[in-house]
Write a structure and sequence with these properties.
- The complex is a heterodimer of chains A (275) and B (295).
- With 275 residues, chain A is mostly helical.
- Chain A has 2 domains: 10-59, no CATH class; 64-272, MetI-like fold (Orthogonal Bundle).
- Chain A contains 13 helices and no strands.
- Chain A is globular, with a radius of gyration of 25 Å.
- Chain B is an all-alpha fold and 295 residues long.
- Chain B has helices spanning 9-36, 54-61, 63-97, 101-116, 119-130, 135-142, 156-181, 185-193, 198-227, 230-235, 247-256, 261-290.
- The chains are: A mainly alpha (275), B mainly alpha (295).
- Chains A and B meet through helix 1, helix 4, helix 5, helix 6 and helix 7 of A and helix 1, helix 3, helix 4, helix 5 and helix 6 of B.
């Protein structure tokens, strides 16, 4: 009788339920942090839980602007921006050397592979000696030590990624530029930069996120004067009264730059993962 | 002319990079070899007595270290396996069932959100949910169910694993999704014309094409879950007892909490060599697979 009626597709329903469940699973912790950050501290943990703040307040965010958390965010911003600038600049020069002088002893494939080994070692393996080195030099708790350490850890990444882009630029362009009498720097600016600008921007974004999000280096090299926000976060959990709404607010605020970067650079970041 | 023939240009181009890496990475590592051969422990005495390979042998006799390796097998092995299987399944489902481009983009961006956050932030968000008086338990209590000890002795490792799955399933999803949409579509068309079943198409076309990207995703995740101790640090600090003490976290405690520097340096080197060995073995396996002719 009902031959025309479509058969109920169990498989499809199951798949869509699964996708829906995964989406809820991903979004719930983020939503909950957002929700908690607009609550008064006494409203964070209630039975039953409040899925929408009953009296929304910005007090957690106001506290962020006034307290030592602001300094932590500023330090993170300073360190990750300067370190990214240096790592990308030096990485670009190095990748140019690898690309254009592949046969030389200093810039051979073996040397390139050594760079990657730096990336493979677990950070804890380096951090013990690095910590003692900075301590010996009296540079713990300075922007300098943090920046140089981050540059060293991210140079392998920037060299590795940028080399792919530099390799794609034909040499003849530079040759023509040199023949016209331009210097190395002028040539870089005139021929190289415009051609790799998209790759360069994505590399900057990725490198910046890595440093912005890094915890252990920041934690060990930080102190009273200079502290990155991931290193600052655990300190909020000590003490008698834990301000969960402030912790939630820091988590939300800290994630905004990375989420914006993901949104604007989604195409490039997706491509970078396949380089 | 100076076109790519200069003797020195590559030296000053690469020199600064090399200098920073030698000073900040290579030199400290060499210092670590020296210190690993001593019993240096500044809280006990400032003396650095040469003890030979004793520290290295001690590592393999250390029950706490051996136990932490077992936990790593669960955390990095099982946990990463779930991420990779789940990510692959979701990526294939997105391609097959989600036809609207906007919907696909939205779903992928949502899946990538946790990945862009700091590990400590992800751990902190989860801590808000799973702590003893946290949101999950409050929900359970208001439903008149028994609260669960998410971070208790038996469940803590699983809970940290759940946070890791939450954060990183998106990576496999992204890698597999991109690989899947680059599989030539005519392969599928001709297979359907030949009347091949969906299962057969999945086994004979999709999975062979995806073998390499899936393996790369698994490797990236395995190495990272081995390398980073952030989630354990924030969520459990290795506890309760030693229930979530992963090897890198144990090394952190030995080096920065117990200050047994010589011993920690030996452990660091063992980790580093372990990571490089794992990488090389994987590389060889991949080479073997590649000759299978999938790409």
């Amino acid at each position: 009788m009902n031959a025309v009626k479509k058969k109920f597709d169990w498989g499809k329903t199951l798949v869509f339920t699964g996708i829906g469940a995964y989406t809820v699973f991903v979004l719930f912790p983020i939503y909950w942090a957002l929700n908690s950050s607009f609550k008064d501290v006494n409203d964070v943990y209630t039975i039953p839980p409040k899925f929408v703040p009953s009296e929304p307040t910005l007090s957690a965010y106001e506290w962020l602007l006034k307290s030592s958390a602001r300094g932590a965010f500023l330090d993170s911003l300073i360190v990750s921006s300067i370190a990214t600038g240096l790592a990308v600049f030096l990485g670009l020069l190095a990748s140019y050397a690898f690309s254009r002088y592949p046969g030389r002893k200093l810039t051979s494939e073996g040397s390139f592979f050594n760079l990657l080994v730096v990336r493979m070692f677990p950070p804890i393996a380096f951090l013990l000696p690095i910590y003692w080195m900075w301590k010996y030099l009296g540079l713990i708790d300075t922007h300098f030590a943090l920046i140089i350490t981050y540059v060293a850890f991210n140079l392998p990444l920037t060299v590795w990624i940028l080399r792919n882009f530099v390799d794609e630029v034909p040499r003849s362009l530079e040759e023509a530029s040199y023949l016209d009498g331009y210097s190395f720097w002028q040539t870089m600016r005139r021929t190289m930069l415009p051609l790799i600008s998209a790759g360069l921007a994505a590399t900057i974004a990725l490198c910046w996120i890595f440093i912005w999000n890094e915890f252990l280096i920041g934690y060990l090299l930080s102190g009273k004067e200079v502290i990155t926000y991931p290193a600052y976060l655990p300190s909020l959990r000590r003490g008698m009264r834990i301000m969960w709404n402030q912790i939630a607010a820091i988590s939300i605020l800290a994630s905004i730059p990375s989420v914006l970067i993901l949104f604007f650079f989604r195409k490039y970041i997706i491509r970078l993962y396949f380089k | 002319m100076k076109l790519f023939t200069t003797r020195t240009q590559h030296i000053w181009l690469f020199g600064p990079t090399q200098l920073i890496i030698v000073c900040v990475v290579i030199f400290p590592l060499i210092w670590a070899i020296y210190i690993s051969l001593t019993d240096y422990s500044p809280v006990v005495s400032p003396a650095k007595n040469f003890v030979g390979l004793k520290n290295f042998i001690q590592v393999f006799k250390d029950d706490r270290f051996i136990d932490s390796l077992g936990r790593m097998a669960i955390y990095s092995g099982f946990g990463v396996a779930i991420q990779v299987v789940l990510g692959t399944a979701l990526a294939l489902a997105f391609v097959k069932y989600i036809k609207s481009g906007l919907m696909r983009a939205a779903l992928i961006i949502i899946s990538l959100l946790p990945m862009m956050m700091a590990e400590v932030v992800a751990a902190q968000m989860w801590y808000l949910l799973v702590s003893a008086a946290g949101t999950f338990n409050n929900i359970l209590i208001s439903l008149r169910l028994k609260p669960i000890e998410w971070l208790g002795k038996d469940m803590a490792l699983g809970t940290v694993m759940l946070a890791d799955i939450w954060q990183w399933t998106g990576l496999t999803l992204l890698i597999v999704f991109a690989a899947r949409i680059s599989v030539p579509e005519d392969l599928y068309e001709s297979a359907e014309l030949d009347g091949a079943s969906e299962w057969l198409i999945l086994r004979k076309i999709t999975l062979p094409y995806l073998a390499t990207p899936v393996a790369i995703a698994a490797l990236l995740r395995f190495m990272d879950s081995y390398k980073y101790l952030d989630k354990v640090f924030i969520m459990t600090y290795g506890g309760p007892g030693t229930a979530t003490e992963l090897p890198t976290f144990y090394a952190y405690l030995v080096g920065f909490s117990y200050f047994k520097i010589g011993y920690a340096a030996a452990m660091s080197w063992i980790f580093g060599i372990g990571a490089v060995l794992a990488m090389l073995i994987f590389w060889q396996l991949m080479k073997g697979k590649r000759t299978g002719g999938t790409r």
